[in-house]
Amino acid sequence: MRIGIVCYPTFGGSGVLATELGKALAQKGHQVHFITYQQPVRLSAFIPNIFYHEVQVPTYPLFDFPPYETALASTMVNVIKNYNLDLLHVHYAIPHASAAYMAKKILHEEGYNIPVVTTLHGTDITLVGKDKMYAPVVSFSINKSDVITAVSNNLREETYATFDIRKEIEVIYNFIDVTRFNRKPLDAFKKVLAPKGERILLHASNFRQVKRVQDVVEVFYEVQKEIPAKLLFVGDGPERKTAEEYGHKLNIFDRMIFVGKQEQIEDIFAIADLFLLPSEYESFGLVALEAMASKVPVVSSNAGGLEEVNINGVTGFTANVGDVKTMSEKALDILKDDATLNGFRQRAFEHAQQFNMDEIIPQYEALYRRFCKDC
Ligand code: GMT
C-alpha cells in the first residue's frame, strides 16, 4: 500500500509512535510518505521505501501566525496526488485531523477518494483538544475521519465523554520493538553514574506540567533516605527548572543527574532499577512500556491508561495522582532486595511482550485493508 503519515516530528510519544509505525510498515513492503514540518527525530537512517515531504509555510508580513494548517492541507493534496496514495493516517488530532478533512474534500472535488485514519494520542483530547478554542474543530474533524483509533481503552472513553463522537473508536495500543530494548547494561556507564552501586531511579519525559516532575523528586527524596540511590532525568522541557530547584531545596541535587534529550534511551534504561511516572494523565505511557521492555519495573500514577500498561503489584505499582507517600513506599518495596527487584524486572519484561510490534502492526494493516482490498 502507499500510505501517508502525518505527525509531529519531535520527541513526543505520538511522533515517536507514528515514525516507528511508518518504519515498520516500510519494512513490510509498504510505501510510506511522512508529511510534517521537520524530519522526524526517529527517522535518521535511509530506508528505500520511506519518503519525507517537508511542509513549507511561506511567511508574509501580514501574518502574525503563519497558516501551518493551510500549508499542511495543501502539501497533503500534492503528495496524495503525486504519489497516488491509498490512505492517509494522521496522528494527533490537532491540527492534523482538520487539515486531512480539508485535503479530502479538495481531492473529492477532483474525483479522488482518500480514506483518512485519525489516531488520538491523549493531550489532543484531554488537555488541548477540549479547550473551547479548539473543541468544535476537533470534534467535527474526528467525526469526519473514516476510522478513529485511540491508544488505550481509557482514551477511547475519555473521547466519548469529552466530545459528541458518533462513530466507533477502535483501540490499538502503543507498541515497541521489544528486541531494541533488550540490552545488556553497560558497566562503565553505570559506574560513572552510580560508582558505589547505588540504585538508579529514572524519569524520562518532555518535562511538561502533566508529568508532575516535582513528585518524581519527592519520591526520590524519600527513597534515598532509606537506600543509596541516584535519580536520572532524561529529556527536557518547561518543568526541568522546577525539578532542579526542588532538588536544591531538598538538598539532594548532588544525587540527581540531568542528561537532557537522548536518542539512545535503551542504553539508559538498561542501567536503571526503577522508572517513575507520576503523571497527572497518560493516555497510555509509551515510555513506561519502554522501561518495562528493558526489564525496569515502574512506579506510576493510576491516571488515564497507565493501569492498562503498568499492572499494579505485578510489573510495578500504581497509586493515585499526587500520592507520593504510597509511591515512595512502593518504590522501596521493589528496591529493598535483589530477589524482589528481579521478580518485578522479569514480570515487567514478560508483560511488555504483548505490546511488541509484531502483535500491533498487523492490527493497523488490517484496518487499512478495509479501504484497499487489492493493495
Ligand atoms: O507524553 C506526552 O506529553 C507526549 C504525547 C504526544 O502526544 O506526543 O504523548 C501522548 O501520546 C503517547 C503515544 O500515544 C502516549 O503514550 C502518551 O501517554 C501520551 N501522553 C499523554 O497522554 C500525556
Q: Would you write up a description of this structure?
A:
It is a single chain. This protein is α/β, with parallel strands linked by helices and 375 residues long. It has two domains: 2-175 and 356-369, Glycogen Phosphorylase B (Rossmann fold); 178-354, Glycogen Phosphorylase B (Rossmann fold, 3-Layer(aba) Sandwich), CATH 3.40.50. The chain has 16 helices and 13 strands. The chain has helices at 13-27, 68-82, 93-109, 123-126, 135-144, 153-162, 178-181, 187-193, 213-226, 240-249, 265-269, 286-293, 306-309, 324-335, 338-352, 357-369; strands at residues 2-6, 31-36, 50-54, 87-91, 116-120, 147-150, 169-171, 199-204, 229-234, 256-258, 274-277, 298-301, 316-319. The strands form two sheets. It has a seven-stranded parallel beta sheet, with helices on both faces. The chain has a six-stranded parallel beta sheet with strand order 10-9-8-11-12-13, with helices on both faces. Helix 9 links the parallel strand 8 and strand 9 (229-234). Helix 9 packs across helix 14 (324-335) and helix 12 (286-293) crosses helix 15. It is elongated, with a radius of gyration of 21 Å. The model has no long low-confidence stretch (mean pLDDT 95). The protein binds ligand GMT. Ligand GMT binds next to helix 1.
